[in-house]
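Human: Note token order:
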Amino acid sequence: MRLKGILTGAALALTLAAAGCSTFGSTQIFTSDYTARRDLGYQVPSIPIYKVERKYHRQIVSYDTAEAPGTIVVDTSNKFLYFVLPEGRAVRYGIGVGRQGFEWKGTARIARKAEWPVWTPPAEMIGRQPELVKWRGGMPGGPQNALGARALYLYNKGGDTGYRLHGTPEWFSIGKAMSSGCIRLMNQDIIDLYSRAEVGAKVIVM
């Protein structure tokens, strides 16, 4: 088994063992889908996708898992998010993850979805970055909003986890660990994931 261009054999098996998954080569890649577009009255800028490693471009991959179609599996180590499809396939997206000290893992569900969501920085974030105090009442949705074009809100048995799957205008952060714990995708990718994922879907963060 091999994950194209990234991991091979036992290393991959160890990485994905928690979700009972394995991956193979890409069957379709969407490199041409990162152009500018209008979306619900907002302009989504184009992404210079040639500056983003090819492995982080959205693609359909073979994916062997016991999880049901519609499940989302987040592999934080390799900076991939998988949306499970039928017949042993998945849509794979490149992601940015939480920097050291802000990582999170566990199982949750999508409790709600939002288009061009308002972003309200938590009090502890404002404490670390006082310049964000101007947004304590909420930053309106738009191209510069930290949550990007879409957000999927993750809840578990204890309620709101505070973590989101969301877009970002900072396409250059994909493949890196620099967020405050949330999982970020390029705006064109979160729009695609939003169209596929349903409220109630299971999300596994490894």
